[in-house]
Amino acid sequence: MLTIEQLQKSFTIHHLQKTFPALQNISLHVAEGGFLGIVGKSGSGKSTILKSIYRTYEPQEGRILFESKAFGTIDLLQATPRQIVYLRKHEIGYVSQFLNVMPRTTALELVTQSLLDVGVAQEEAISRAEQALRHFDLDEKLWNSYPNNFSGGEKLRLNIACAVVKEPRLLLLDEPTASLDQASKLKVRESIEKLKAQGTTLIGIFHDLEFMEGLCDDVFTMTKYVEKEVLA
């Protein structure tokens, strides 16, 4: 489903005229329907891998080969902006710790729109969105409210609902349980197990190693590929 070959990424702070390494020579493979967990210390580049797959970041070297239903084998680093927009809408989901939404859009509208984007009819989209919000214990009083004033946990649960309801072929999880209580974590785990059973491929970053137990088929451990000193 996804193969990363010799991925390298660094960040330049122009006003300091300094370049800092983030990833160096990262290679990994995820089989279709598998779940790869990525572990490592803070700052080791875990999130940078996921953002590179999602093309939020553009690495300087390497390849990310994705088996797309629409495009066949495609290098995500060479994909056109139009292809990336399509893949994000139809094939690749991303859950982060943070929720960035358009203003004046309610929680129910956000989840419904996720389904409309993949061609679900309006009535069914609303019904499935309500089921998702109910599953993740979003109080029904909040469904028609704007998420800007939600708590951190409520925003995260909404973010997860928007991603999993689309049942993407590949789902990227960047600390999806970071600010959740135990009951909410169990809801997330239940959804992940359901997606996995349906054939979704998953890559996840978790500091909660207990949560990962029994979920991941394989674990990729970030090692100290580069020293943290400034590159020349």
Chart the SSEs and their pairings:
Blueprint: E1 2-13, E2 18-30, E3 35-39, H1 46-53, E4 61-68, E5 72-75, H2 81-90, E6 92-95, H3 107-117, H4 122-135, H5 152-164, E7 170-174, H6 182-197, E8 201-205, H7 209-212, E9 218-221
Parallel strand pairs: 3-8, 3-9, 6-7, 7-8
Antiparallel strand pairs: 1-2, 1-4, 4-5
Description:
This protein has 232 residues and is an alpha/beta fold. It has one domain (34-58, 79-221): P-loop containing nucleotide triphosphate hydrolases (Rossmann fold), CATH 3.40.50.300. Helix content is 33%, strand content 26%. It is built from seven helices and nine strands. A five-stranded parallel sheet has the order 6-7-8-3-9. Strand 1 (2-13) and strand 2 form a beta hairpin. Helix 3 (107-117) crosses helix 4 (122-135) and helix 3 runs parallel beside helix 5 (152-164). The longest helix is centred in the last third of the chain and has 16 residues, at 182-197. Mean pLDDT is 88; it is low at 224-232. This is Phosphonate C-P lyase system protein PhnL. Keywords: ATP-binding, Lyase, Nucleotide-binding, Transport. Residues 2-230 form the ABC transporter domain.
